[in-house]
């Protein structure tokens, strides 16, 4: 249902769909002279960006939309806890994100004749799914911040680009200044994409922790995000019922 | 004489539309938020492509190419996005009908609303160059700052005209924001921002040359390397040409929309 | 300087057809004739009302006369100028008050809205501020003029619409449903304002579907139904149309639609109109028969609980109901 509502007002999601396609195209042109495995960076990165846009912001904007529509109060009044509603929305936007990612991959392979050879498909799939989970969890966390302040939606719109950079979506994070590394490493997607590169390319050395370490951290990050997100929701719900401030800005 | 000019209806329409659009923007987005977006988005967009460049071909000239290109590309946010936002706002508020019911001359009405964005664009590009110089290490020691300023001015003007045209196209669509978002980023691919236009397939290049920014990036790089205004003349004239063409097309579309809507009775449909 | 034309508005066989097509492959055309050839005149200084049910063609007509819609055929002159050829001249001389929630710039103040439109209408700078001030006084928004429109109530927005419609001090003013959606207090004030404008010599054409409003305000009324004018006269003349009609008004609870249908099928019953206000129903029966008809009515409505039965003088509303039936 929320997905349908979403499709009827595409403007909220479009920014997050278009940028990945364009950035991937630019990257592929950058990589045109590079060897096959390097091109992997571009394609994978683009796919990931596509996924992240939809997933991260799906839940948030849907809620923002609710707020605008005035339906937020009604949603709150329903018996089911807000958390589960949001979780459901996050899940549906995650699926949307997956479709988005696949679209980018297809366009990259077909349009640019890029080569995407995956050495270990099962590991790859596993990494993909877990990254998706981590993103949904991050989305839940963002969502709760939206409820606290309307400024949050503007803020997170601005976070899209920094995440593309910090997570090393298309280039190794080693290139980034050393003081930013802790930031990069605190993001689940950073580990996810590293893991996916391991699964796709046999010669990949990446961050140097190995595939399974990546997966472990990815899993842990999901848990952590969810925990913080849930906690924030409880805080928000209590606050809202106490001073009915959710409808106001 | 001056007071006669101030009374001149076209000028008043122009000025009012400009001030109005300015207020509308700032009422929606509190200044701090706007400032943050203007300062951070360009930084990270530039960072993304610079690091990508460093990964693939880390020569200084390549990095400089990318950084300067991105500094110019920053104008897209104000020229395209904000202008299209205005169109959406008008539709949503239902103020398109009252506007068109007035006897006001359509041309200053059409142009005036975008005026503030020109200044916005110039300021953003300036910020972009600050980032390029101090964070990404572009060598500005040979730069001709006068020429560069002119390039920035012309690019901002021309791109705002381009944005106006996109806004007019948006009048015909259910949501103008889709167009705005496409063109916000498409410059990265088409306008010689990250690599020369000549790298693109030949069938795509004409599209690039229709967008003023393509000339802007070329001229900006030349100015950074020390070219003077006269040497940049041809490129700048082409850019002005592209900008003027955009404004004219945009205006024609705007009038076309009005006439069509009045004939079909669809003025409030969107 | 051309001689002053005789009439403020002359409409001659105006028609408007809307066509829309649906579907991509198998196009189905939907053609609606909203206005089917209407003609009427409005004098200078007159308050003319165009009344009719929703969808009758009132709004389409007023849009054509205010140059926001081109007619399919027929002609009309506003202030002596053709609505298709002399669009700019007409726009300069008329005021348009369409009301509603939209049509104002939300994020700026009421005063700033007026200033913008003053500029668009080329109101001389020397007169601008004073006129804005006077208009704000007149509509009672002087104290709230510098607040953002997004914070205005429905009634305040309507008042701002009125001020905006008068910003160019027009001779002729068009109002589309000026009191719709207003609470009774605000509606009363609006009507008083409209009367005040006519007293100052303005010409007004307004549309409404409130009969009592048309009765109170208008010197002449055109009744429009199904895209045609079915009557054109002063309120008193129109009321004579129903002078032989008795109106029986019944206050009841629980009247079923079947009962109303049965009532309508009675001979000598012109119209039966039911008004629901919560549980309570007010039923107006028009009949040529007079008070002797009452027992028949109460018998047909015996299943319901009847609170009161009254004989009423036919009003303009009754004339209207008879005309549009």
Give structural notes.
Chain A is mostly helical and 249 residues long. Chain A contains ten helices and no strands. Chain A starts with a helix and ends in a 6-residue tail after the last helix. Residues 1-13 of chain A have low confidence and may be disordered. In chain B, 79% of the residues lie in helices and 0% in strands. Chain B contains 13 helices and no strands. Chain B has helices at residues 2-7, 9-28, 31-56, 60-73, 75-93, 96-101, 106-112, 115-134, 145-171, 177-190, 205-210, 212-224, 229-264. In chain B, helix 2 runs parallel beside helix 7. Chain C is α/β, with parallel strands linked by helices and 325 residues long. In chain C, helix 3 crosses helix 4. Chain C is globular and about 70 Å long. Chain C is built from eleven helices and 14 strands. The interface between A and B is medium-sized, with 33 and 33 residues.
How much β-strand is present in the residues of chain A?
Answer: under 5%
What's the story with the biggest beta sheet of chain A?
none
SSE order of chain A, as H and E? HHHHHHHHHH
Helical content band of chain A: over 70%
Q: Which percent bin holds the helix content of chain B?
A: over 70%
Mean pLDDT of chain B: 86
Multimer state: heterotrimer
Number of helices of chain B: 13
Question: How are the secondary structure elements laid out?
Answer:
The complex is a heterotrimer of chains A (249), B (270) and C (325).
Chain A: H1 2-8, H2 14-30, H3 36-69, H4 72-77, H5 82-112, H6 121-148, H7 151-166, H8 181-185, H9 188-200, H10 211-243
Chain B: H1 2-7, H2 9-28, H3 31-56, H4 60-73, H5 75-93, H6 96-101, H7 106-112, H8 115-134, H9 145-171, H10 177-190, H11 205-210, H12 212-224, H13 229-264
Chain C: E1 7-22, E2 28-43, E3 47-51, H1 58-65, E4 73-78, E5 81-82, H2 87-93, E6 94-97, H3 110-120, H4 125-139, H5 154-165, E7 172-176, H6 184-199, E8 203-208, H7 211-217, E9 220-225, E10 228-233, H8 235-240, E11 246-253, H9 257-264, E12 269-277, E13 280-287, H10 294-300, E14 305-312, H11 316-324
Parallel strand pairs in C: 3-8, 3-9, 6-7, 7-8
Antiparallel strand pairs in C: 1-2, 1-4, 4-5, 9-10, 11-13, 11-14, 12-13
